[in-house]
Write a structure and sequence with these properties.
Layout: H1 2-14, E1 22-26, H2 33-49, E2 53-57, H3 64-71, E3 79-84, H4 86-93, H5 102-105, E4 106-121, H6 130-139, E5 145-148, H7 154-166, E6 171-174, H8 178-186, E7 192-196, H9 197-205, E8 210-214, E9 239-247, H10 252-266, H11 269-278, E10 281-282, H12 287-308
Parallel strand pairs: 1-2, 1-3, 5-6, 5-7
Antiparallel strand pairs: 3-9, 4-7, 4-8, 4-9, 4-10
Length: 313
Amino acid sequence: MAGLFFAYALQAHAQGTPAKPVRVVVPFGPGGGASVQARLITDAMREDGGRGFVIDNRPGAGGLIGAQIVADAAHDGTTVLFTTSTLAVNTTLFAGTMRFDPRRDLTPVSLISAGPLVLCVHPSVPAQSVKELIALARRHPGKLAAGINEYGSTGHLAAEMLNQLAGINTTIVPYKGGGPALMGLLTGDVALLFVVAPVAMSQLKARRIRGLAVTTPQRSVAFPGLPAIKEIVPGLETDVWYAVFFPRATPDPIVTRFNAEMLTALGSEAVKGFYKREGLDPVGSTPEALRAHLATEIAKYSKVIRQANIKAQ
């Protein structure tokens, strides 16, 4: 009976009508970047192929609760994980407590999108460029406060990378979320903050903060005039990326078809328009490219975490 059911599920996927709606587990709360994009992409997929989807927000433990749910789910193509680059960070940060390994227990489907972090400073900071900020930090070691939106976040690791690679010493000030961290920058309680692209875009337009650089390998079309920080601090590359995974051992035909449907959705006008407004880039990739990207990201963040002796909170 189990064999007959599995064969039916495969056939249903091949015909584009799964036996039941696909459960999309978002390991963060409603309204965040991952949740908004999950709804946007699945809406486009639903319109294109009539597939049903249910968004299931499961926040907690930096995204690990939702990821664990997917890692434990049946590999019949009816449960997927829509997550972010925090997955690569958490693999090292929570190595002692994680009950799964994303490289072993998750099947890559596709990268979805990516956006830079923007190095921003309070207007009172006497630095008009990254070089001037580094010089200022060297003149006053430990005096500049670097806000972070959450301990162990990509923004936190970007701040640690700046310290390590530029040879400076800023004081890391953790907040409980992106909103409080931004408020700390706006009030001048911290001097600098790596801000996610959509938030940075609105605040820079309002001239409440000053942008110095983006953290992507190349300059971002969404932030003309800002250099890639690696031009000044070689090796400092990081971004916020979003990706989709199935549980381990999901059959290749299901992965291939889902990947194709997601790439089609990324090409829709609604999706492209959203990403342009939000300062993000639609990416799309093969499962193999996502697998390689995850491995590279885990290795990169592992080095930073160990050098800074960052412990899970």
